[in-house]
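Hi team,

As requested, here is the filled-out complex form for the zinc ion run. I kept the field names the same as last time so the parser does not choke. Let me know if anything looks off before we queue the next batch.

— J.
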Amino acid sequence: MIFADLELKISSPKGNEILLLKTEPEVYEKTVLVIGVFHGDEPAGEYLINRYLQERHDTKNRILFIPCLNPDGKEQKTRTNSNGVDLNRNFPTKNWEKTEKSSEYYGGDTPASEQETQFLIYIIDKYKPDLIITLHEPYRVVNYDGPAEKIAERISQITGYKTEKNIGYPTPGSFGTYCGIEKSIPTITLELPENEEQELLWNTNKGIFDYIISSDFDKSEI
Ligand SMILES: [Zn+2]
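And here is what came back:
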């Protein structure tokens, strides 16, 4: 039993389902989008989302979940999707660039060439989230793009993972650049630890869900 409504569903290039789930009170204040498995070899985020949705929760915000954005990569156990594209380099940002096809950071032949990327762009345009959280592995750190410093600090307090602004190396075509920097949507890239025991992973991170269902994310405080 999953306590969320199915909002949208598409098929991946290999015929796997990509789901958008929703929990929504009658009247809501903010919209939050939570995304798991951007990279196929990073399964922890899907576990956390599904674990959260096993119980009913009262939320004052509309919460959208994509438990697994990259089911083909998950099936193949690769970072990339079935076309060998790193979805986190495939967004139509100003700094998108064509890179080596053999690289596991290959950003596609053109920006937004991939169905998974197009699906996510459509969702952001349609639902206009006030906060986006993407769940990655393995660095145990809270990265952020755009006006998300206060939110990142709060998530850092909850998890004990340290906060880092997303700089250091160039990430052309990244989702954080697309949403956070170019659209000014607070965007958190939560890097979970790799191969963590599931109960520990859940206990460390469950407070994030309590936070996103109850907070106002007042932009004036960010
Ligand atoms: Zn990742």
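Two things worth flagging: The chain has a mean pLDDT of 95. Residues 38-39, 42, 136 surround zinc ion (CB under 6 Å).

Thanks,
J.
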